[in-house]
Every structure is written in C-alpha cells, then in structure tokens.
Specification:
Elements lengths: L6 H7 L31 E3 L11 E5 L2 E5 L8 E7 L5 E8 L5 H4 L9 E8 L2 E8 L3 E8 L15 E5 L3 E8 L5 E7 L1 H4 L4 E7 L11 E5 L11 E5 L2 E8 L6 E7 L7 E6 L12 E5 L5 E8 L5 E9 L6 E2 L1 E4 L21 E4 L3 E3 L36 E3 L5 E4 L17 E3 L5 E12 L4 E8 L3 E9 L2 E9 L9 E8 L3 E2 L8 E12 L2 E7 L6 E2 L4 E2 L9 E8 L8 E10 L1
Antiparallel strand pairs: 1-24, 2-3, 3-4, 4-5, 6-7, 7-8, 8-9, 10-11, 11-12, 12-13, 14-15, 15-16, 16-17, 18-19, 19-20, 20-21, 22-23, 25-26, 26-39, 27-38, 28-34, 28-39, 29-30, 29-38, 30-31, 31-32, 33-34, 34-35, 35-36, 35-37
C-alpha cells in the first residue's frame, strides 16, 4: 500500500524524534516566508493561537534552544503529551510520558474529567521532571534523562512516583533552589478538599520524590482574586516568583507574586487580563526565559467545543514585574494584598498586559515550519496524535502488517446507553476551527449489530457508522445529546449498502464494505458524508453541533462496537485518514 505521507516511515525508526516533520493544511501560526495560511506577507510574525488544539493547562521548559510542552490529559491514554519546539511557535508531538493510568482497575474504564490534572515540566540536573495532581489520589511525578543534544526519548520516562498521597491537591510545580533544596507549590480542588483559591508551599526531598515538610498557605486569593489556581514556581534575581491565574477560566486574569522566601509572604500584581480583546481568560500557562535572552509566556484560552488552545505572549520585565502581552494603562494601578501594603515597584505598576493576536516570532536558529500531526497513513502503527478514552487493551485494536490499523468491535458495557461509557474510542484533537477529515476504511461484520465508523465525541456526540443488518449494511447516524447526563443514543438510518466482498468458506464468515467516510467541521458545526469511490460524496443527514467533553474539548476519530456479541468480533480496518482544508 503506497501512502502519501513519508513521515510515517521515520516514525518507526524513532517515534519521539522525527526528521521529516508534519505540516498542516488547516492551521499553522507561522507567517514566515515559506508561506502561511493565516497571512500573505511572510513578515516573520506568528498568529495566535500557536496551538489551535486542546492543550489545557500548558507548561513549558527550556533545555538550551529546545522547548518542551506538556498539558493536562485527564482520562485520555496515553497521557502527558510531550510537544517539542525550537522557536515556541512551531510545535510537534514527540511522545507521551504516561502510557497507563493507575489504579488500573479504575482507569480501565472511562473516568471522564479524572486522572491527570495540570502538570508542570522542569529541567534539572540533565533530567526532565513532570509533576501533576490527581485530585482523587495525590501528587505524582515521572522523569526522563535528557541527552547532550537536548533530546529525550519516550521509552525513557520512569514509572509514576507518588510524591504525596491524598485528595484535593492539584496543579503542583517544583522549584529547585541554588542550595539544592526543592520546594513544591500546589493549589486545591474545592470539589475534593472543600476549599480553594489558596496556594500552599512545602519542601520536598532534594531528589523531588517525597515531601519532607508540611504545607504552608502562602497566598489566599479571597474574593478579590478568587479561584487562584495553576501556580508555577520560579526564581529570578533573588526573588521567588509564583505566576498563576485567578478569577476563573472564562473571565479571569494573570497574577504575578514575589517574595524573598519560598514561604512568603508574597506581594502580588495583576499582569495580564482580557482587556478589549476577545481572548477570554487568559488562563494558566508558563513563563520561558530563552537562550537568546528573551522572555515569553504561553497560556490557554477557552474555545468552548474546541477546548483550551495555546497562545504565546511576550513578557516585559522593565518594571520589575512580568507584564505579559501588549502594555496598556492599568485601570486599577494600586493593586495589593488586602492584608499587606506594598512599596512602589516602578512605573510598570501603572500598566497591565492584554493578549496579542499576532506578534513577531521569538529569536531562534530554527527556520523549520512544523505542526502537530493530524493525518495518518497507519503504515507503522498509530501516530502520536491518537488517544483512547481509557487504558489501552489489546482487544481494542492493533496495527497490521498491511499498512492499516484494525479496530475491533467492542462488547457493549452493561446497560449500554451511549458511547460515553465506551473505552475503545480512538480519538484525536481538532487542530483548526475549520477542516475536513476523510477516512478510507473497510468494515468486516460477522454478525448483525456490529458497526464502525467516524465519530465527533463530547458531552453530545454524533457518529456516521456502517452497521450489519442481515446480509447487507445500513449506513446510520448515532447521536446522543447529553451523554454525560445518561441520555440514551438515538439512531437514524441513512441508506442501505450492499457488501463489496464476502467470505465464501463457512467458518465464521464475514461480509465486507469498502467505503470513504468524511466529517467536515466549520466553526463548531459538523457535517457527515460518505462515498463509495472516494470522489463523489453524499450528505449523511443533518448537521451536528460540537460540544466539549469533561474538562476536554470535543475529539474526533473512530468507533467500532457491537450491540451484543454472540461469537466472533467484527473489525474496522482503517487505511488512512487525511485532514485537509
């Protein structure tokens, strides 16, 4: 089978570091001279968001001239995605730090909104560390060595280490001080702890593997800075800095706070807010000081059904405080702790930042334009963009030697209501507001009620599937509105299709259908269509409105299920999926 994307071959040679990088047809933030989708002038600028995909709670660290980003992955597996960049604008997925969620008996089934919350990534002693909070189990850490060339291999990530056991702790971030001591800041989930809006600091062992000190509240946002969360810990010019959002995802702002002691007390300033832009939040993120002496801040912006996408802003330290984005007059210049007066901090205290939609690119030695992977030829297993809704099991699917990925029909959960409870959904994030996803598949059914196809998944979902009915196939739309609330699935017949092939030997014989399935997304509205020749597509019923999942954006991909398995499983052989304009 000849495939049109040559990068897949190189993925087999090294799944983490590829030399043939992927370029998207539907979203790229780089407006440099190689031709940009969002600009025509090749002016060396970038357009926000730099990642039009659901990488919520992003954190970034620099290793020389290389940058590594990770983000919340919740119940999706593999978890803790690792993205790499050389200029903070062009990113690619290079691996995952977490291959399975624990406890296994819990996460072998979908646990929407649970699992990996708000990780931090740090470089210390030639090692990358990632800490995250599981609000139901504690604070965890994984680590991996970094090579002399600043690279890290996915298979080198350690098994998760539970640093602190307990409920309610979220958004942890470590800081190794000059004397070798390690401190950890974290926020609290009201849903588990019974309180929030406060930040705590405690000391960890020097190797960062366990707590050796008790927590101390170092900041209470109160009413003025309610929902303070997502803290990131830094040290600069003798000051301990905590950067965090407050005010909530939709309408919040960025805080910077500083102290001469890791345990405070901290004075604070608001350093970025939405202002007159339509970039709501702007929420949790990461400060990066580059090898070229520049300072940048990456943060997320809530795009509803598309999830929480990533923006890049310059940082101005001229006032002694990190003002992010475009400097504008601060309408509330006298910001201070309600319990502690502050001394003047320079004229920059009269300013606050608002997000840029476009800005000049960071200094870099790289001219490469690269984007997170979307299309997949399945020549060498799954691309790094794919995730399951629960821990992977070999019954879900396997790559084949024929350049396809085989997804087996899954036994339905007890008292099946909708795909919300199904673990074997193979999904990826939308990466643009508008795109078309076309898949070439062959479906094999061995008994009635087996079905497979394309799905756009969220709290509401809709799928275009082929279902065996007797000696033929029925093309159907399966839709649930309110899947997260236990609503039942509605099914709609589109047309009847005759098999393109069938087994002739009477040993668990199957009938087969070769078909092209397509979903087209335009500003949150999905239209499904199908074709039997790959050229002429027919509409498959009404449009569907995307809706986000639990703490994640909507995701699209493949489904293979059965109504009731009596004998052998059917399967969906996916030849390719291509993401186009």
């Amino acid at each position: 089978m000849i495939k049109f994307k040559y990068y897949c071959l190189l993925l087999a040679l090294n799944p983490l570091w590829v030399n043939a990088q992927y370029r998207s047809e539907v979203w790229s933030p780089d407006r440099s001279a190689e031709g940009r989708l969002q600009g025509k002038n090749g002016d060396g600028t970038y357009t926000n968001p730099v990642l039009y995909a659901d990488y919520s709670d992003p954190d970034v660290c620099a290793v020389g001239e290389d940058y590594y980003l990770t983000a919340s992955s919740f119940n999706c597996v593999p978890g803790l995605p690792i993205l790499h960049s050389r200029d903070l604008v062009n990113w690619e997925i290079v691996g995952h730090a977490l291959q399975e969620l624990e406890p296994k008996e819990l996460f072998d089934k979908p646990q929407h909104g649970k699992g990996v919350w708000a990780p931090s990534i740090r470089h210390h002693n030639d090692t990358l560390y990632i800490y995250w909070g599981d609000p139901d189990h504690g604070i965890f850490m994984v680590k991996a060595p970094v090579s002399e060339k600043g690279k890290v291999k996915s298979e080198k990530w350690s098994a998760p280490n539970c640093v602190i056991t307990g409920k309610g702790m979220i958004d942890p971030c470590p800081l190794w001080d000059e004397d070798g001591r390690c401190y950890l800041v974290n926020a609290w989930a009201n849903s588990r702890a019974g309180f929030n809006s406060v930040l705590s600091v405690r000391e960890l062992s020097a190797d960062g593997t366990k707590a050796i000190g008790q927590p101390r509240i170092v900041f209470d946002g109160g009413q003025e800075n309610h929902t303070a969360e997502g803290p990131k810990f830094y040290k600069r010019d003798g000051w301990y800095w905590i950067l965090c959002p407050a005010g909530g995802v939709a309408m919040g702002w960025q805080l910077a706070m500083r102290s001469k002691s890791p345990y405070g007390p901290y004075e604070w300033r608001r350093v970025m807010w939405q202002g007159k832009t339509d970039i709501n939040g702007p929420h949790q993120g990461a400060w990066v000081h580059t090898a070229f002496g520049e300072d940048w801040f990456l943060h997320f912006n809530d795009k509803g059904a598309y999830g929480r996408v990533v923006y890049l802003q310059p940082v101005d330290w001229s006032s002694g405080w990190p003002i992010m984005g475009r400097l504008i007059p601060n309408p509330i210049p006298e910001q201070s702790s309600p319990t502690r007066s502050l001394s003047p901090v320079g004229e920059g205290s009269d300013y606050i930042g608002e997000p840029y939609k476009s800005y000049h690119k960071p200094k870099s030695n790289s001219k490469l334009i690269v984007n997170p992977q979307e299309s997949d030829e399945f020549n060498d297993g799954l691309g790094l963009q794919w995730q399951w809704h629960a821990n992977y099991h070999q019954f879900y699917g396997q790559p084949t030697a024929y350049g396809t990925y085989r997804l087996y029909t899954m036994d339905p959960p007890t008292e099946f209501k909708s795909l919300w409870d199904v673990p074997n959904l193979l999904l990826q994030k939308p990466t643009a507001p508008r795109f078309t996803a076309t898949a070439k598949v062959r479906f094999a059914a061995k008994e009635d009620g087996q079905y497979g196809g394309l799905v756009m998944m969220g709290r509401d979902y809709s799928a275009l599937v082929i279902c065996r009915e007797g000696d033929a196939f029925q093309l159907q739309r399966h839709t649930t509105i309110g899947a997260d609330e236990g609503a039942s699935e509605m099914q709609q017949a589109i047309t009847t299709l005759q098999p393109t092939d069938r087994d002739t030997i009477p040993y668990a014989p199957a009938i087969y259908l070769d078909i092209f399935l397509r979903l087209t997304v335009k500003d949150g509205i999905v239209n499904f269509s199908y074709s039997q020749d790959g050229k002429h597509f027919k509409s498959a019923s009404d449009p569907f409105k995307m809706r986000e999942g639990k703490w994640i954006g909507a995701k699209f991909g493949f489904v293979a299920e059965c109504c009731e398995r009596k004998a052998s499983r059917g399967w969906l052989d996916i030849d390719w999926i291509r993401i186009t304009k």
